[in-house]
From TrEMBL:
InterPro entries: FTHF_cligase-like_sf (IPR024185), LUD_dom (IPR003741), NagB/RpiA_transferase-like (IPR037171). Residues 103-212 form the LUD domain. It comes from Streptomyces alanosinicus. It comes from the Bacteria. Pfam families: LUD_dom. This is LUD domain-containing protein. Coiled coil: none annotated.
Amino acid sequence: MSSRDRVLGRVRRALADVTPHNGPYEEAVGRDYLPEHGHRTTGQTVELLAENLADYRAIVHRCGAGELPDLVARLLAGRGSRQVLEPPGLPPEWLSAADVVRVEDRAESTPQRLDEVDSVVTGCAVAIAETGTIVLDGSPDQGRRRISLVPDHHLCVVRVPGQVVSSVPQALERLDPARPLTWISGPSATSDIELDRVEGVHGPRTLEVILLG
């Protein structure tokens, strides 16, 4: 008997007294949980997002539409970023004031080439206030998943309040599960058994979020 057979056998024995559910899958699990915790105004929801983003060690900025190009340019210059990766559908004005070399997202770009890029600038699909999470879904202003995972610095623009929701259930209502979803809560980080935190292991070492009002 193989290890696979042993594992499946244990699963079958554990489920032997469970009544099978023959109805539609969406009815198998109750959906009677709260869609959000408490009631907040739009402004309070945005403030909670900013607070939780910062709690996850993301750097949060705020600006209006007319201020965005200068802010993006200043943040990239402050990091010394010379090569900046841009998704194909990034609004052209976002990088219009930045003195950088724009690197296009190409299918043939290797991980080594992407690792040479200093920063990546993207939009997002939705931002979740209760968890301090931004979600990318591969839309034109976000590009493919790998471009937000390989470069060491990710600058993400969140349109507020339109892209901000309170909770994960509310976010799921907006997202297409068939799209490549990337959920980001702060910069990439991990801890070893001694709880020593190391950032930049599975993605960007630095995450900056601009709340665009």
